[in-house]
Amino acid sequence: MGAGRGASREVARVRRAYDCDVLVIGGGIVGLSTAYAISRAAPGTRITVLEKESGPARHQTGRNSGVIHSGIYYRPGSLKARYAVRGAAEMVKFCAEYDIAHAVTGKLIVATAREELPRLHALAQRGRENGLTVRELGAAQTAEYEPKADGLAALHVGATGVCDFAAVARHLAEASGAEIRYGARVVRVDRRPDRGVAVRTARGDVVRGRVLVNCAGLHCDEIARLTGDEPGVRIVPFRGEYYELARPDLVRGLVYPVPDPAFPFLGVHLTRGVDGGVHVGPNAVPALAREGYDRRTVRPRELASTLTWPGSWQLARRHWRYGAGELHRSLSKPAFTRAVRRLLPAVTEEDLVPAAAGVRAQAVLRDGTLVDDFLIRQTPRAVHVLNAPSPAATACLPIGREVARRALAALAEGAR
């Protein structure tokens, strides 16, 4: 009996030596979903989330078009395909359960040139392989869905929807039971495989945890290096610029072009959001800072990080023509308008009203390859989410469960 009480006291003493069991860096939708998943899989686990901003979802989560992606674009069997298909259904259910604004609208992917027709058909096949219901349409049938759209053929994907992802993140934060510290920018990480991690913030606070989870989005590779792990990728930020459509009645739902399979970007598209407004965009241009939401924002250290990564130059050499087109559309509103008019001929320059931009955290390998799947790596006492751009918001619930599974396995391993 006395020995049992002694063991209990020792466990309590060890727990007090740490501020938490799992320390999550990043208060975006993936970090908060991870905290939420841990609290449900292992009630009683002490979780602390450090977020450098004054509230959740201030970057990728809160600056996208709000689309619940169906999973049609992604390679069958990949994490993106599996998690997007599963995550879309779960996200609709989650929003309905917690009264978060959402709608299942379906979308059209429209081919406007003959050379796009084989890619459109291949996309339909991919969608079916991923378990989706996809309907192939001719020009007349396309007009039944979107009377103002112009195309030779289209795909209708019924599972696509829209929601308020920032509201989802706020609910995950509240429901996770985690201690969430805002204004807590991480500047140093001391990871000891035999003990755990100690993190220092810019304010001088030190937070100790048994396992670290890195969901830092635009800064995830930097956090990995602070932890002592070489991520093998560099985050290259791409700014996506949006307009708001002054005549939202031109679009009933969501209208997309046929994407180029060589890139993870979907092209300029039109999205009717939960507020009834229509977002147009985004394009994809290199940003001069990781949080470079406009052309004037330049952070020399971050820009140097991009320019000194060999993969950035390989990427530029390989895809300069595509990049030049994106840059042209960024600098020229008439060029951007022409891209929109391919899908919706009635749109004029005056219809496009500038809106807030977003930045995509795209992981690039040393050889210039764009990482095309979610990338999660586990090291002693740490789990790093190193590539989670779109459709990560859609897929956040299954991503969170996977990261939680790894974090709890690391926690159990460390307790042995």
Report on the structure:
With 416 residues, the protein is α+β, with helices and mostly antiparallel strands. The chain is 34% helix and 25% strand. The protein contains 12 helices and 22 strands. Strands 1, 2, 9, 10, 11, 12, 21 and 22 form an 8-stranded mixed beta sheet that branches. Strands 6-7-5-15-16-17-14-19 form an 8-stranded mixed beta sheet. Strand 11 and strand 12 form a beta hairpin. Helix 2 (29-41) packs parallel to helix 6. The radius of gyration is 22 Å and the shape is globular.
Distance between the termini: 23 Å
The largest pleated sheet is described as: 8 strands, mixed
Proportion of strand residues = 25-35%
Strand segment count: 22
How many DSSP helices? 12
The SS-based structural class is alpha+beta
- Portion of residues within helices: 25-40%
Rg estimate, integer Å: 22 Å
Mean pLDDT: 94
Sum up the overall morphology in one term: globular
Low-confidence spans: 6-14
Attribute tags:
416 residues; alpha+beta; 8-stranded mixed sheet; 12 helices
Provide a short characterization of the protein structure.
With 416 residues, the chain is of the alpha+beta class. It has helices at residues 2-16, 29-41, 79-97, 117-129, 139-145, 165-175, 220-227, 300-307, 310-318, 320-331, 333-341, 396-414; strands at residues 20-25, 47-51, 67-68, 102-103, 107-111, 134-138, 153-157, 161-163, 179-182, 186-192, 196-201, 206-214, 233-240, 243-245, 254-257, 269-272, 278-281, 285-286, 352-354, 358-365, 375-379, 382-387.
